[in-house]
């Protein structure tokens, strides 16, 4: 009888013991939440605390050191300290200025700049060096880096780049580094320039799988017919392609944007893995970027794509005209494991519907992340090849206009 009572009690007690033991094991095995690094901040995690340290470099604090901002003194007068003494730097003709040298680990999170004179932005080259490398990972004229390659103000309202009144250039690409970040600007012009700037960054641990930000500029001012323009080539390593900006000058009547954008991934040779359907399609537009009511090009700027600039805006299909176009692959990066090549055709059509190769002036900026070391960039075009000549508006017969 006593054995039966004991056995019956065990039947009820054992499950409870098993549950308690299981809960104890689960509590012991549950991973401790990792501290938030402060990277990849968005509206959904702004409430999270982080050990990351926020810093900023500008002409008022060249090193970004804690408690070292606004210390400049004008004319040896202590009363001027703290009252906007050093808002900008002068960069001498044919010289290079180091904007920032930052010891990591950390990430650059936002950059604001106002260069002067605006019309010489193509002759100021920004370069980024990661973790002590001697070859830059970013080498682009300031104008093109901020999607304003024609050195004229045009508003841009996108996630990666914003251009705001009166000539304020902002970028929000996340740029992690592990040991060191160095940023320089070279003034190729024969005259001095001024640069107002602020580089906001955080010092924090960087994930093991974080790749490095890269950007490269290319230009063909005299493209022959039946030529494919190479936006990017020679990339070796693993990463993802995240953006394209084109400054495109059209020098032939008719619609100019039939060219396909092609991505050659991981050993692709004659044929690419990704082939688009046309220039305006790749940049998020359709039907020649034309306003159906006015019959003119209609500039637009959105978070991920835009035709932010049309010069001049008063005619359509009649050359010469200049365009600024951007496409950010933020929700849809193009991933590669070994290598990458990106091209676009210079192709259009006339009224009779015949597709024709175009003779255009195309400058591109490609943006991507990849593992280091990266392949050496092709030489940057010299001053004569970088500068922008005045746009000479030539007459064209009315019957050349596509209606």
Write down the CATH topology of the largest domain: Jelly Rolls
* CATH architecture type of the largest domain: Sandwich
The helix-strand sequence is HEEEEEEHEEEEEEEEEEEHEEEEEEEEH
**Regions with pLDDT < 50 over 5+ consecutive residues?**
5-14, 17-21, 394-403
Shape: globular
Describe this structure in words.
The protein has four helices and 25 strands. The protein folds into two domains: 49-74 and 84-207, Sandwich (Jelly Rolls); 211-376, Jelly Rolls (Sandwich). Helices cover 10% and strands 38% of the residues. The relative contact order is 0.16. It has helices spanning 2-29, 142-145, 279-282, 383-386, and strands at 53-58, 89-91, 95-103, 106-116, 124-130, 138-141, 156-157, 161-164, 168-171, 175-177, 180-187, 193-203, 212-220, 228-236, 239-250, 261-265, 274-275, 300-301, 305-311, 321-328, 334-336, 339-345, 347-349, 355-357, 361-370. Strand 5 and strand 6 form a beta hairpin. With 403 residues, it is mainly beta. Mean pLDDT is 89; it is low at 5-14, 17-21 and 394-403. Strands 3, 5, 6, 11, 13, 15, 18, 19, 20, 21 and 25 form an eleven-stranded mixed beta sheet that branches. Strands 1, 2, 4, 7, 8, 9, 10 and 12 form an eight-stranded antiparallel beta sheet that branches. It is globular.
């Amino acid at each position: 009888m006593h054995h039966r009572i004991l056995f019956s009690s065990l039947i009820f007690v054992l499950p409870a013991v098993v549950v308690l033991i299981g809960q104890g094991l689960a509590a012991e095995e549950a991973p401790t939440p990792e501290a938030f690094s402060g990277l990849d901040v968005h509206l959904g995690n702004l409430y999270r605390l982080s050990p990351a340290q926020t810093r900023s470099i500008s002409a008022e604090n060249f090193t970004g050191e804690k408690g070292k901002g606004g210390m400049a003194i004008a004319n040896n007068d202590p009363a001027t300290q703290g009252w906007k003494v050093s808002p900008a730097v002068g960069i001498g003709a044919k010289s290079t200025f180091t904007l920032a040298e930052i010891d990591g680990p950390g990430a650059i999170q936002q950059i604001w700049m106002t260069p002067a004179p605006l019309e010489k932005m193509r002759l100021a080259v920004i370069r980024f060096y990661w973790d002590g490398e001697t070859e830059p990972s970013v080498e682009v004229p300031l104008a093109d880096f901020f999607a304003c390659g024609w050195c004229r103000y045009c508003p841009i309202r996108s996630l990666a780049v914003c251009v705001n009144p009166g000539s304020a250039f902002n970028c929000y690409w996340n740029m992690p580094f592990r040991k060191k970040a160095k940023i320089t600007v070279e003034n190729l012009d024969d005259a001095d320039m001024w640069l107002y700037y602020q580089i906001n960054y955080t010092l924090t641990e960087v994930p093991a799988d974080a790749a490095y930000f890269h950007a490269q500029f290319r230009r063909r001012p005299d493209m022959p017919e039946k030529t494919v323009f190479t936006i990017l080539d020679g990339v070796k390593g693993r990463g993802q392609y995240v953006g394209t900006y084109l400054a495109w000058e059209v020098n032939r009547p008719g619609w100019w944007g039939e060219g396909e954008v092609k991505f050659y991934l991981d050993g692709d040779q004659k044929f690419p893995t990704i082939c688009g359907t046309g220039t305006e399609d790749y940049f998020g537009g359709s039907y020649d970027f034309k306003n159906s009511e006015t019959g003119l090009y209609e500039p637009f700027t959105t978070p991920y794509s835009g035709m932010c600039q049309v010069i001049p805006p008063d005619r359509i299909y009649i050359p010469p005209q200049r365009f600024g176009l951007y496409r950010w692959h933020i929700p849809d990066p193009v991933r590669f494991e070994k290598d990458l090549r990106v091209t676009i055709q210079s192709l259009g059509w006339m009224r009779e519907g015949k597709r024709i190769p175009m003779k255009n002036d195309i400058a591109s900026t490609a943006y991507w992340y990849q593992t280091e070391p990266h392949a050496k960039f092709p030489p940057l075009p010299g001053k004569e090849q970088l500068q922008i000549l005045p746009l000479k508006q030539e007459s064209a017969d009315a019957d050349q206009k596509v209606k």
